[in-house]
Design brief:
- By secondary structure, the protein is α/β, with parallel strands linked by helices.
- It has a single domain, classed as Rossmann fold, CATH 3.40.50.
- Helix content is 37%, strand content 17%.
- It has 12 helices and 8 strands.
- α1 runs parallel beside α12.
- The radius of gyration is 17 Å and the shape is globular.
Length: 303
């Protein structure tokens, strides 16, 4: 059932200057915003109802460029790098998803944004859920893409899947093993969790590899996973207050979570729609950007 459960993603190695990923429209601005005791690197563009796009591990907010360009036609699009990742600050702690959900809330306050729709992928799912659970009246719609939620539904069974050995991989010795070999480590996830490794292109690999080879980046990345036990406790606490009631779209890649994504989401929410992206693995925005963008756009446009 969970044959390709993906949720930790990674990328590394130093990147030549020629490496390029899809670019944001020139109308987008980048800002460094103080939020909840850290500073987040944020891209902001467009006007209209607000939507926040939250990336996962192994990528940064750069992954959302095609979707952001489409949504910015009639939305205010806000795309942070999570704490410790990309170009955001790397604080010593706060990598539990409840704290990072608070990061998003304080970021929106700083930008003077109230109600929002939220789209998450991978660890971004977990942050998005924590934000929504703590701000139920602030979230209009929620999109969860191809990753589980700690402590929710069949979490303990998911943890037993050997594909997820990396959930417990971390600590000083592991950091020393990976140091200078980030690309080798992270290529395994890009390759194994994609329907076709060629669809996660070399330019993207080089781009993210360079970001994750920065000082402290892999340490912060490992900290995202080390927090899962606390995340499970926090999420069970959120569930004790009731399931989420806003409309939720659960998207799974055909060669990854598939329809199971919607099944998992039903443990956390009452109003679930499911979409399976044909021909995609875990890396939906790299493998099937047009289909994924269409699915998200259609859901957010729904009255």
């Amino acid at each position: 059932m969970f044959r390709s459960i993906l949720t930790a993603l990674a990328l590394t190695v130093s990147a030549p200057a020629l490496a390029e990923v899809p670019a944001y429209p020139s109308s987008f601005q980048t800002r460094e915003v103080a939020a909840n005791g850290t500073t987040l690197h944020v891209r902001v563009g467009g006007t209209g109802p607000a939507v926040v796009l939250i990336h996962g591990y192994g990528e940064t907010g750069d992954m959302w460029a095609p979707l952001a360009a489409e949504l910015a036609k009639d939305h205010k699009v806000i795309v942070p790098d999570l704490r410790g990742m990309g170009l955001s600050q790397r604080p010593a702690g706060g990598y539990d998803k409840k704290t990072q959900g608070e990061d998003i809330a304080r970021l929106l306050d700083a930008l003077q944004v109230g109600k929002v729709d939220v789209v998450g992928h991978d660890i971004g799912n977990m942050v998005a859920y924590a934000f929504a659970a703590q701000n139920r009246d602030r979230v209009g719609k929620l999109v969860l893409m191809d990753a589980p939620l700690p402590g929710v539904g069949p979490w303990e069974e998911i943890l037993k899947n050997p594909l997820l050995w990396h959930f417990r991989f971390g600590g000083p010795d592991m950091e020393r093993l990976v140091a200078g070999r980030e690309r080798i480590y992270l290529d395994r996830f890009w390759n194994e969790f994609s329907a076709d490794p060629k669809n996660f292109d070399e330019a993207s690999r080089q781009h993210y590899a360079a970001l994750y080879a920065r000082p402290g980046a892999m340490h912060a990345g490992f900290a995202q996973f080390a927090a899962f036990d606390q995340d499970a406790i926090d999420n069970r606490g959120f569930l004790s207050e009731g399931k989420l009631t806003m409309p939720i779209l659960a998207i799974g890649g055909e060669k990854s979570f598939g329809a199971t994504m919607a099944t998992v989401a039903q443990f956390a929410a009452t109003d679930i729609s499911g979409v399976v992206i044909a021909g995609a693995g875990h890396w939906l925005m790299e493998e099937r950007p047009a289909d994924t963008t269409k699915a998200v756009r259609s859901f957010l446009d729904r009255k």
